[in-house]
Design brief:
It contains 19 helices and twelve strands. It is of the alpha+beta class and 687 residues long. Strands 1, 2, 6, 7 and 8 form a five-stranded antiparallel β-sheet that branches. A three-stranded antiparallel β-sheet has the order 3-5-4, sandwiched between helices. The chain has a two-stranded antiparallel ribbon with strand order 9-10. The radius of gyration is 36 Å and the shape is extended.
């Protein structure tokens, strides 16, 4: 659910404003809303306030850049030094850190250059000999790829220079390096020859550019011998500086952030010569914290609380407040913008149906156990307060997020295992081959005979040894069960699409919005009528059903179409193409067929992987068992790796598009609740 908010307006004397804002930081519950216009000053600070802000921001930037150069993780909390010494402490750390950073950067550049060019430069140095110091001879180094023809270069040089040059090449790794020696006055002619055969002069990076080849080779040799050890020394020096300065720097950095935040609050407030006013929002369940922070100032602060007008205020922040089962799924909803305040929070719907849809699609005990292991691994890292470093994606997942993801994964795994029992799948048909799962025609006919299907009499029941668990939802029996599985999936579409338009109607009535109300009525009735028409006419096979008024489905169908026509006429000015939208919404219901289709493809692929391994056992014997197990595991891993993202995204898409579009969720949003909070401890105290 969306946590209810109260709007608050606070007025205080200007001389007390810093203490009041600091108290609000301590309370950590007020989401600020900028004040614009009016008789008091708003917007950017001026005068002494602006100068103070610039100084604090300068020190903050200096502290943050120094911490970045130190590259240290946050150390244990330290006492906050006195404010008058912050600038000196920052500079004491910043100057040696900046000098050390430059040394490390230069050395790393040398190491990178040696790694990329070292072998080539050493070969060129040997070829050059003492010619690279000659006043009359000019040397042009170049690199030949494996496909380049040195004969073409030789011909181009001869055309430009006749016999006034020397060309030498040497193989280095997969390529060749070459050197052209010619008179200094004819250097440009040699370059032109290189250009004609699409080659260029080799230019070395950084400080090596311009050095004679012999000196460059000697210098790269020195870097290769001593560079790594020297980099280790510089890193050790950086660690020493971090240990000495990082605790105080982090404390000062946090305190400066709090001071800059005070300046930011003043900038979004209304300011007079002697007073300051600010406004914002507070969750109703945290009003006590706000009152406790402000009441201690007595008459120096005046504030007013009143309910939020969720019909007209577009800047009311949203905080989701759900029970312990639903709350982890807020991480999934974090992929979307928050819902508009005063509307519908779909998190609990996603928490209920997303793992269910995933379980129906996967429906494999073996895969479910793998997901369960992965979920427990995530929870284990979170319990140890460890994050997950995904540096190859440029991301880091904190422990709190891992805890939520682990819970969501375990719920998905539970549904996958449950549906695996219903479909009789364990890494495809592995357990079915042993008879642990088996087809019972009589049981299937008694369970699903009401749908009109019968297990084909000519089909031979699976004969196995054990017959432990009968398969209750045989989706792999495509010859007779596909229609049942398809309609079963479409039932979720019928439920969610109609539910979405019902929410649209409810929200329209709540907000006294006749346009959205009638739009919802029109499409709820129209979609319902299309669904009833499909059932009454047996998917278009019996159009005589349109006149069968003894069938209640037909009567309800006409009522639905009438509701669509009336609703459309009421909103035709706003939505003239609503009939096209009706057809689109009918397609949205059909989109839920992907639960069946994607799941069936997953099951068929898993079956093929297992059946291939099983056939090796049947044809080769004991050796076939080993090969079959190894091959089956590899194929199952590849299938799961290639299809898993789609199996996750398909249920998400059904919720984010087919279900949430009718509710209006994707059309409007509100800012996230982001309260003013203190980062630093009180003066002289440790966090």
């Amino acid at each position: 659910m969306i946590n209810p908010m109260q709007q608050v307006v606070i007025a205080t004397r200007k001389r007390d404003s810093e203490a009041v804002i600091a108290a609000l930081q301590d309370a950590g519950v007020l989401h600020l809303k900028p004040i614009t216009g009016g008789p008091l000053s708003t917007g950017s600070l001026a005068g002494a306030d602006a100068q103070s802000r610039r100084e604090d921001e300068r020190l903050l930037a200096r502290a943050e850049s120094t911490l970045a150069e130190l590259g240290s993780y946050r150390p244990a909390p330290a006492s906050l030094p006195a404010a008058e010494g912050w600038a000196d402490l920052i500079e004491q750390a910043a100057q040696p850190t900046a000098a050390l950073a430059r040394q490390r950067q230069d050395l790393q550049a040398d190491l990178d250059a040696e790694s990329a060019y070292g072998d080539a430069v050493r070969a060129l140095g040997r070829m050059a000999g003492s010619l690279d110091r000659s006043q009359r001879v000019s040397l042009l180094p170049f690199v030949l790829q494996a496909t380049d023809n040195s004969g073409e270069l030789d011909a181009a040089l001869k055309a430009e220079l006749a016999d006034r040059y020397v060309l030498a090449t040497e193989t280095v790794g997969a390529n060749r390096v070459g050197l052209i020696a010619t008179r200094r006055s004819e250097r440009d002619l040699a370059r032109a020859a290189l250009g004609k055969v699409r080659l260029g002069e080799l230019r070395l990076p950084g400080r090596f550019d311009g050095l004679p080849l012999g000196e460059a080779a000697a210098e790269m040799d020195r870097v290769a011998r001593t560079g790594t050890a020297r980099l280790g020394e510089l890193n050790a020096e950086r660690d020493r500086l971090a240990q000495a300065h990082a605790p105080a720097l982090y404390a000062i950095r946090d305190a400066l952030k709090d001071r800059v935040a005070i300046h930011d609050v003043r900038a979004v407030s209304a300011r007079g010569k002697y007073s300051l006013a600010l406004q914002g929002y507070v969750p109703e369940d945290r009003l006590a914290a706000l009152k406790g922070a402000l009441d201690r100032f007595g008459s120096a602060v005046s504030y007013d609380l009143h309910p939020v007008d969720d019909h007209h205020d577009d800047l009311v922040p949203v905080e989701l407040k759900n029970n312990s089962y639903v709350k982890p799924f807020q991480t999934v909803m974090g992929l979307m913008t928050p819902p508009k305040y005063g509307t519908f929070d779909p998190t609990w719907v996603v928490a209920l149906f997303f793992p269910l849809f995933f379980g129906i699609i996967m429906a494999d005990i073996g895969y479910g156990l793998l997901f369960l292991w992965f979920g427990m691994w995530l929870l284990g890292k979170a319990k140890r307060n460890e994050g997950w470093d995904l540096s190859f994606f440029g991301a880091y997942v904190p422990p709190a997020t891992l805890r939520d993801l682990g819970f969501v994964t375990n719920v998905m795994a539970a549904w996958t295992i449950l549906w695996g029992f219903l479909t009789g799948e364990f890494f495809g048909t592995f357990l079915e081959h042993f008879g642990i799962f088996y087809i019972n025609p009589e049981l299937l006919n008694s369970l699903w005979g009401w749908t009109g299907i019968r297990y084909p009499e000519e089909a031979e029941a699976h004969k196995t040894l054990f017959h432990l668990f009968p398969i209750l939802f045989p989706r792999l029996e495509t010859g007779y069960f596909s229609n049942v599985a398809l309609v079963f999936a479409l039932c979720f579409g019928i439920l969610q699409v109609l539910w979405g338009w019902a929410i649209r109607i409810q929200q329209g009535l709540r907000h006294k919005d006749p346009v959205h109300t009638w739009e919802g009525i029109a499409l709820f009735g129209g979609v319902g009528a299309l669904i009833l028409m499909a059932f009454a006419t047996k998917a278009g096979k019996d159009f005589s059903a349109f006149t069968n008024f003894s069938d209640p489905r037909v009567l309800l169908m006409y009522v639905g179409f009438a509701a669509f026509v009336v609703g459309w006429l009421r909103v035709i000015k706003h939505y003239p193409l609503l009939p096209i939208e009706l057809l689109s919404q009918g397609g949205a219901v059909v989109s839920y067929a992907r639960i069946f289709a994607v799941g069936l493809v997953s099951a068929i692929l898993a079956k093929l992987c297992t059946d291939l391994g099983w056939s090796l056992y049947e044809n080769i014997g004991f050796l076939g068992i080993i090969i079959g197990i190894l091959l089956g595991l590899v194929l199952h891993f590849l299938v799961l790796a290639l299809t898993l993202i789609g199996h996750v995204l398909q249920p998400l898409r059904l919720h984010m598009v087919e279900f949430l579009n009718p509710t209006g969720f994707n059309a409007d949003s509100s800012p996230r609740y982001n309260p003013l909070r203190r980062l630093s401890p009180a003066q002289g105290q440790v966090k």
